[in-house]
Structures are given as structure tokens and as C-alpha cells.
Amino acid sequence: MTKQEILDYLLEKRQLVAPLAVAQQEKQKREESLASVKSLYNFLAYASLGLFILFVLVDFGTTSMRPTFFFFLIFIALGVKYFYAIPKKKREIAEVQAVCDAEASTQAYIEGAKGFPNKFYNYTDIYRLYKLIEEGRADELKEAFNLLETQQYQETKLSMQEEMVALQADVAKSARTAAFAATVGAISSRR
């Protein structure tokens, strides 16, 4: 195959997987939205519950319990909204998942996967393969597959190293905090 034939082949594959990639991206956005809604409602519910308990303790035995009742109503309203909003977000995710499943089961998508490694049959990898061929970093598809696999391996190792550096920094920070606390404790006990 010539370079242009390979590029056309990869462009055709990219067009086949693009609708699924768009649906998966939409699903990911909806899942992130669900997580943010859950965390927001949890924070607001705990805050209003805490204020309710605080006002119950402060107002206990007094004649005016309006602030307490107000925070109790807020807590109830947030609970109702939470139990309405979360299932709605989950239904939206299920709808997008159905679109993903429909796109993945189209005849064109299935036919396009034949003769192409499953590991690389996604929009991002096909785009990267296309760029490797286009830039001349690989002359044939097999070489591009190997180069992409090497790049992915290196990216995985790099992310693992970054996680280790972050973990070591956290351990060092904890050790400094413990050393400071021990120093303060020693100074306090010395007096």
C-alpha cells in the first residue's frame, strides 16, 4: 500500500468510529455531571442538617424555633430535589449508553473492525496512527501499530512515575508535619 492509500484507509476507519466516539464523549460528560450533582447535594444536605442540629441545640427550650424549622425545610427540600435529580441524570446516562450500544452494533462499524486490531479500533488511536503515517514516522501500517504501542507503553510508565512522585511528595509532607508535631511536643514537655 502507498502512503496515500494507508491514509485513506485510516480516514475511512476514523469516519466509522467517529459517531461512537462522540456518543462516548457525551456519556463521559453526563457521568461527570452526575458526580458533581451528587457531591453538591451531599454538601448542601450535610450543611443544612448540621445547621439544623446546631439550631436545635441552641434553640432548645426557647419560644422561637423559626431558624431551626427553616433549616429543616431546606434539608427536606434538598432531599426531595436530590432524589429527583439523581435518577434523572442516571436516565440520561442510560439513554446515551443506548446510543453508544446502537453505534457499536451498526453493520458498518462491525464490518470496519474486521481485519483491524481491536486494541486500536477507536477514534483516538486511529487518529494517532493517521498522524504517524502522515508525518512520515512510520512507512507502513504495521510499523505505525508498533510505534503507537510503544508510545502508549511509555505514556503508561510516565503516568505511573508521576503518581509515584506525587505519593513521595505526600509522604515527605506527612513526615515534615510529624516532625514538626514531635518538635512542638518535645518543647512543650520540656517546659
Outline the structure in words.
There is one protein chain. This protein has 191 residues and is mainly α. Helices cover 86% and strands 0% of the residues. It has five helices and no strands. The protein has helices at 3-59, 66-104, 107-113, 123-134, 141-190. The longest helix has 57 residues, at 3-59. The mean pLDDT is 86.
What layout of secondary structure does this protein have?
Blueprint (H helix, E strand, L loop, with lengths): L2 H57 L6 H39 L2 H7 L9 H12 L6 H50 L1
The helix tally amounts to 5
Instruction: Kindly state the percentage of residues in helix.
Output: over 70%
> What coarse outline follows from CA principal-axis ratios?
flat
Beta-strand content bin: under 5%
Mean pLDDT: 86
CA distance, first residue to last residue: 84 Å
Q: Which stretches are poorly predicted, pLDDT < 50 over at least 5 residues?
A: none
Structural class computed from helices and strand pairing:
mainly alpha
Summarize the structure.
The chain is an all-alpha fold and 191 residues long. It has helices at 3-59, 66-104, 107-113, 123-134, 141-190.
